[in-house]
Specification:
The protein has about 120 residues and is mainly beta. The chain has one domain (about 5-10, about 30-115): Lipocalin. The chain is about 5% helix and about 45% strand. The protein has 1 helix and 8 strands. The protein has one helix spanning about 35-40; strands spanning about 5-10, 45-50, 55-60, 65-70, 75-80, 85-90, 100-105, 110-115. It has an 8-stranded antiparallel β-barrel. Strand 6 (about 85-90) and strand 7 form a beta hairpin. It is globular and about 35 Å long. Mean pLDDT is about 75; it is low at about 10-30.
Length: about 120
């Protein structure tokens, strides 16, 4: 699988994550289930870096709306959990295409996103 992004989730946005990685009982691969993703992201801010090195900040609202900023660009859209993936459709970013990613927790407590096919989709 190819890495899409690295991300930290926290209730308060800071350059470092305030979020303590929960003990989900994740299997050896440590890929999160849909319910684990929902618990992690709902009404949270996330900061991270894309595969291309662009930093971003997004806010995932409980009602399925998402707002984001990256390198001086801002956008909004929708998010949802589909099976065991976190899916987005931005109004402008990524040309408005719908895309999904699996989330995996790393040993350092950060999260990585992967496409189902293992392709980069930054």
């Amino acid at each position: 699988m190819s890495r899409l992004f690295n991300v930290s989730f926290g209730v308060v946005f800071l350059s470092c994550s305030l979020f303590q990685s929960p003990s989900f009982g994740i299997a050896e691969e440590r890929t999160l289930s849909g319910e684990q993703i929902r618990e992690l992201v709902t009404d949270k801010r996330a900061t991270g870096t894309t595969q291309d090195g662009f930093s971003f900040e997004i806010k995932l609202h409980k009602n399925g709306k998402v707002e984001g900023s990256s390198e001086g660009s801002v956008d909004q859209g929708i998010w949802e959990i589909k099976t065991d993936t976190l899916c987005f459709k931005w109004d402008q970013w990524r040309h408005g295409e719908y895309y999904c990613a699996h989330l995996r927790i790393r040993d350092d407590g950060q999260y990585e996103g992967f496409s189902k096919e293992g392709r980069l989709t930054h």
